[in-house]
Amino acid sequence: xxxxxxxxxxxxxxxxxxxxxxxxxxxxxxxxxxxxxxxxxxxxxxxxxxxxxxxxxxxxxxxxxxxxxxxxxxxxxxxxxxxxxxxxxxxxxxxxxxxxxxxxxxxxxxxxxxxxxxxxxxxxxxxxxxxxxxxxxxxxxxxxxxxxxxxxxxxxxxxxxxxxxxxxxxxxxxxxxxxxxxxxxxxxxxxxxxxxxxxxxxxxxxxxxxxxxxxxxxxxxxxxxxxxxxxxxxxxxxxxxxxxxxxxxxxxxxxxxxxxxxxxxxxxxxxxxxxxxxxxxxxxxxxxxxxxxxxxxxxxxxxxxxxxxxxxxxxxxxxxxxxxxxxxxxxxxxxxxxxxxxxxxxxxxxxx
Amino acid sequence: xxxxxxxxxxxxxxxxxxxxxxxxxxxxxxxxxxxxxxxxxxxxxxxxxxxxxxxxxxxxxxxxxxxxxxxxxxxxxxxxxxxxxxxxxxxxxxxxxxxxxxxxxxxxxxxxxxxxxxxxxxxxxxxxxxxxxxxxxxxxxxxxxxxxxxxxxxxxxxxxxxxxxxxxxxxxxxxxxxxxxxxxxxxxxxxxxxxxxxxxxxxxxxxxxxxxxxxxxxxxxxxxxxxxxxxxxxxxxxxxxxxxxxxxxxxxxxxxxxxxxxxxxxxxxxxxxxxxxxxxxxxxxxxxxxxxxxxxxxxxxxxxxxxxxxxxxxxxxxxxxxxxxxxxxx
Amino acid sequence: xxxxxxxxxxxxxxxxxxxxxxxxxxxxxxxxxxxxxxxxxxxxxxxxxxxxxxxxxxxxxxxxxxxxxxxxxxxxxxxxxxxxxxxxxxxxxxxxxxxxxxxxxxxxxxxxxxxxxxxxxxxxxxxxxxxxxxxxxxxxxxxxxxxxxxxxxxxxxxxxxxxxxxxxxxxxxxxxxxxxxxxxxxxxxxxxxxxxxxxxxxxxxxxxxxxxxxxxxxxxxxxxxxxxxxxxxxxxxxxxxxxxxxxxxxxxxxxxxx
Lengths: 352, 330, 258
Fold this sequence. Notes:
The complex is a heterotrimer. By secondary structure, chain A is mainly alpha-helical.
C-alpha cells in the first residue's frame, strides 16, 4: 500500500514537472504533450461508448468538431463574440450531446452495425457543412477555417501569456498543460467511477449480450443513448479546449482519419480498461512523432528519397493494428481484468 | 432544358452504379450479417486497376478500338477485386466468425483503411484523370440529353442485375447462397458448405464492385483513392433503403437513391433560394436585388441526401422497402 | 397446492405466426401463485415461442396476458422484467466477461435507481445503494450455492454453475414469476438432482415458477400443474397424474417420437 502511494506521488511529480523540462527543450514539445493529453481525453470519452457499452462510433471526431466550432464561433472576431469559457465550454458539450442524442435515438434501437455506418456518415456530413456553410451567410468561413480564436481565460488569469510564479516562468502552453491534466484527471475519475456503478455495469452487460441485458430489465435503448450522448459531450469539451489552445480551427482537423486514430487507441490499448486506453493513446500519439524522426531519415538514407509518406505509413499501421488486435488480442494489449479488480475490491472490503 | 427529365436520366445512371455496389453489401450482410466496410475500397481499387491498364494500353499505342481497351481494363480489374474480396473474407473475417460482434466490424474498418492507403501508395494522392477514350455521343430526348456512356452504364447494370437474379434463383450454387442467408445452420445440415458460400458472396460482390468502379471512373472521368468511401456509404444506404439482405431491395434501393439524389441536387438550389421565400425574402430584399439569388444550399450538398435517406429509413422503416428481415434481431 | 390459490398469470388466446408457420394458435393458460407450472410438448410444439412471447422477446400477433391483476406490457423484454417476470435461456446467456457477482449485480438494475451523476459524484445514496446491490447479489450467490465462484468470470464457470448463476441473476430482479427455459438441458444426473432441489426450494420460499422442460420425468415429479403444447396448440392442462394419462398427450408424444 505504501509503495503504491509512493509510486503515485512520483508519477504525479513527474507529470507536474514535465512541461518545465519540455520548455527547456522547446515550447513545441509542450504543445505536442498538450495534444497527446487531449487525445487521451478523447479516447477516454470514446471509451465510454465503444469500450464500455460496445457501440461502434466511427464519427467521434464530428462531436469534437461541434465543440471546437462552438468555441470558435462564440469566442473570436468572426462574429465579434467573446463569450467567457464557462458559457461556451458547457455549450459545446451540450451541442455535441444533442447531436449525439439526435443521431443515436433512431439508430440505437437497431443492431449495432447501423450505428457504425450512421456515425461514419455523420462525420462526413459535419465535414460537408463545415466546408460549405460560408455562403450565402458566412457561418463557418468554409475551408479557410476560423482564426484568432480567444484563448482560455479564467477571470484575469490568461492562458495565452507567460506568467512568472516563484521565479519560474510558465508559458501559455505550459499553463494549458496543467489545465488539460486537470481535465484528464476528471475524465479518468468519471471513467473509473462509472465502471463500478449501476449504469456502467448495464453498459458492459449490453456489450456482452444485449438480449440478456434486456431480459434482466435494462432499458437498453435508453442506457445506450446515455453512453452515446455522454461520449459525445466529452468530445465536445475536448473540441472546445482544442479551439482555445490552437487559436485556429478548420475542417481539416476533423477528418475520418482522426476518428480512426482515436478508435485505434482504445482497441489497441484494451477496450473498457481505463489504464489500457491511456497506454494505447500514449503509444499512438507518439507514433507520428516517432515515424517523423525515424522513418523519414531512414528512407532517405537507404533509398535516397522518400518512398512512403510517414502520414500514409501511420494510417497503414493503424489499419494493420486494428485488424491484428482483433485477430490475436481482441481484448487489447492491456486487457481489462474485471475479476482481478473485483478481487482487490473484495479484499479491501474485508480488510477495512 | 428539361431539368426534371435530365435529372431523371442522371439519377438513373448513378442509381444503377449504387445498385451494383449495394449488391455487394447486401449479399455479404444477408449471409453473415456483417457490414463489409472495405467493399467501397474494393470498388475504388477496381477503378484504379482499370485506370492503369487503360493508360498502359493507350500509352503503348496499340491502336485497339477504345471499347476493347475499356473492356480489357474491366477484365483486369475484376479478377484483382475478386482476389481481394476472397482474401478479405479468408484472412480477416473468417477467423472472427464466432467472435463478439464488434470484432469483425473493427476489422472491417481496419481493412478499409489498409486498402485505401495502399491505393494511395500505388496510385498517388492526386485524383487521376480517367482517360476519356470512349466516344461519348449525346442524344436529345424530350429536352434532355443522354450520353452513350450513360446508356452503357444503365444497360450493363441491368444486365448484371438480371444475371445475378438468374444466378441465385436458377443455379444450384445460387440457391445454396439463398439457403445460407435464410439459416446458416439449416443450410449446413442440408450439406451446404457454408464457408464456400460465404467466400462466394464476397467474391461475387467484389466482381460486381470492380465493374461498378470502372463505370464510376468512366462516368465522372476521375479516379481517386478516397472515392470508395463516399460511394460505399451511399451504396450501403441504398442497401438499407431497399432492405438489407434482400437482393431485389438493393437494386431498387440503388435506383431510388440515385433518383432522390439527382432530383434533390437538381432542385435544392431553386428550393432553398431565400429570395423566393415569402417572409425571409423580404428581409433580404437588398441582397436579392444585388445578387439575384440567395441560395442556402447549393449542389455542393449533394452527398448529404444519401445520408438523410439513410436516417429517414432507419427512423420510419428500418426493414427497408422490400425487407422482411427484422432489423431488431440482436 | 390448493386449487383456490389466486391467479398470478392468465394468458388469453396467444397466437404467433412465422411466415407460413403457425407457431402458436390461441394458447390460453393460467398460472396460480406459488405453484410450479410445467410447459411441455414435443420438439417444435411452440414452447420456446410461447416463452419468448411471454417475455417480450417476440411480438405476438394476437392475444393478451393478465399478470398480477394487470395487463402485461409485452412490447419489450425490459418491461416484462420490470413487471416481475424473470427468465433464463435455453442456451444460457450470461455476461461472459463479467464476474459471477457482477452478473447478479446487473440483475439488480431494474430495482435500483442510481444514475450517472450519482455514480460520478459518489453521493451517499449512491454508495448506500451500491453496497445494498452487492450485499443482495452475494446473498443470492449463496442461495444458489456458488458464492465461492463470486469473483470468477462467468464464462469460466462450469455448465451447472452457469445455470445456477443465470437463476441467481433472474432472482435478483425480484420476480413474482420465474420462468426457466429447459434448465436441465445438458445437465448430468447429479446436476439435475441439484437443480430439482433448487427449484423446490424456490417454491417453498413462495416463488411461482414456470418451467419449460424436455425431461418429462423431471417435470412430472416437480410440477404442480402441466400444460402440453402440440403444433402450437394447447392439448391438455392439469395435474401431472391426469396429463400423463391423457390420450391426446400420449398420441402427441408417440407421434412425435415415431
